[in-house]
Amino acid sequence: MDSILVVDDNSAICSALTLMLDIHGYKALSCETPQQAIDIVTKQDISLVIQDMNFTRDTTSGEEGKQLFYTLRQQQPNLPIILMTAWTQLETAVELVKAGAADYMGKPWDDAKLLTSINNLLSIYHLSKQNNQLTRVDSERMSAINDADLCGMVFGSGAMQRCIDLSLQVAKSDVSVMITGPNGAGKDKIADIVQANSLLKDKPFIKVNIGALPMDLLEAELFGAEAGAFTGANKVRIGRFEAADGGTLFLDEIGNLPLSGQVKLLRVLQTGEFERLGSHQTRKVNVRVISATNADLADDINNGSFREDLFYRLNVIELAIAPLNQRVDDILPLAQYFVGNEFSFDKPAQQALLNHAWSGNVRELENVCKRAVLLASNALLTLADLGLSPQTHQTLNQVREHNQESNRELSRESNRKPNRELSREKQSSEELAETLQPAQPVDPDKQQIEQALVAHNGVIARVAKSLGLSRQALYRRMDKYGLSSK
């Protein structure tokens, strides 16, 4: 409720105004001297002041009111002040309105006119306060960003701005952070930002790409191994946890960690304790863990391939990165960064960059830009230099336009059709969009993988290529079916 202060040496006027204000839902206060008014505004939250111009008997100059007005304005420059007097002087009114007086009224006043003025002034006052608060918050945020180490991060979208804001906020704590998003979206860069702005920035920062490690060596990489623990282990191997002791360990593609490794990782997160492979000696470390994944770990938990208790240990704070085609404002700044200041894009090339699907996200964009620079005949890069298919642009636009039109149609029909019917229409829209996307390869079963392993003598690179999988994807399926390259 807004508090309005009435300042008048006539107690009857104070009573009349406070009664009117109370009736119309305002909290009214009153006083009879300028000093009392100054004390109240200093100590209480006042939203508007209605003040007289003369406070001494037989005085009509308005000097007392002017002095009070300037004192209040000095204390609170944005406080709306309505001036009222029975001795209206045009020169004084003009002077004070120029100085910031919200309104200048004569006595007796018109209740309706006064209430309208109060309502309008309070609306403007609150809007101004909100804008000031937003400006202050934005200024503080920008100051924090300017003082932060963004590790060369280039962005222009609000989505990435929010992700970075949250990254900087959690960086100072020691909680586990999980970064989610598709391949090539920039998860490793966010991990760098968290580390660079943490209290551990001068401590070890060890990165492990779990998806790139063979399953039979993964636990040895993480936890170490004694000499003779497995074939080829001729000397003691220090694990990544030991190497990161006192600092931070970044586990990329955490969804590829086998269940046996998940059990050990959970124990380390809970107690800091582990044993090297081939050893019974318990070791203890203090490590902050940042993890990243492009997988849907909720599905992995449901099918039993990822432990739920480990998920909640890792995912204290989630930093989600959207695909590049969902943060279009990042595309052109990133493209310009990748080609450097010596090159620029013409309008068709810019539009092509914005329309492309970018299934490989930032990594794909970087490759396209590097290729364009190598093949360009001059500093102005064209659509031909980018090598992007116009058909791809047209198809993506068709999907976007169709989905937008479908959403508009669903919105128009939402008040006329049952929810079940709307759900079917939305599903049809999604199915149509899927038909415009490239067909996905059939996931090989256990028998197909076994046959490919035999046919290629267990050479993983060849087996993966023959099945249309990445090496990491093949290792995941082999682990799932209990298969070995031998």
Q: Looking across the biggest beta sheet, what order are the strands in?
A: 2-1-3-4-5
Query: Would you identify the CATH architecture of the largest domain?
Result: 3-Layer(aba) Sandwich
The tally of helices reads 21
Q: What fraction of the residues are assigned to beta strands by DSSP?
A: 5-15%
Write down the overall geometry: elongated
Structural class: alpha/beta
First-last Cα distance: 77 Å
The gyration radius over C-alpha positions equals 34 Å
CATH class label of the largest domain:
Alpha Beta
Specify the helix fraction band.
40-55%
Low-confidence stretches: 391-395, 413-441
What is the residue-mean pLDDT, rounded to a whole number? 83
Largest sheet: 5 strands, parallel
Kindly report the name of the CATH homologous superfamily of the largest domain. P-loop containing nucleotide triphosphate hydrolases
Query: What is the CATH topology classification name of the largest domain?
Result: Rossmann fold
Total strands = 14
Number of domains: 5
Molecular structure report:
The chain is of the alpha/beta class. The protein has five domains: 3-128, 3-Layer(aba) Sandwich (Rossmann fold), CATH 3.40.50.2300; 158-322, P-loop containing nucleotide triphosphate hydrolases (Rossmann fold, 3-Layer(aba) Sandwich), CATH 3.40.50; 325-388, Helicase, Ruva Protein, domain 3 (Orthogonal Bundle); 393-435; 446-481. It is 52% helix and 12% strand. The chain has helices spanning 11-23, 34-43, 63-75, 90-98, 111-147, 158-171, 187-196, 215-223, 240-243, 259-271, 297-302, 308-314, 331-339, 347-355, 361-375, 383-386, 390-413, 419-435, 446-455, 460-467, 471-481, and strands spanning 3-7, 27-31, 48-52, 81-85, 103-106, 177-180, 205-209, 248-252, 273-275, 282-284, 288-293, 317-320, 344-345, 380-381. Strands 2-1-3-4-5 form a five-stranded parallel β-sheet, sandwiched between helices. A five-stranded parallel β-sheet has the order 7-8-11-6-12. The termini are far apart. Mean pLDDT is 83; it is low at 391-395 and 413-441.
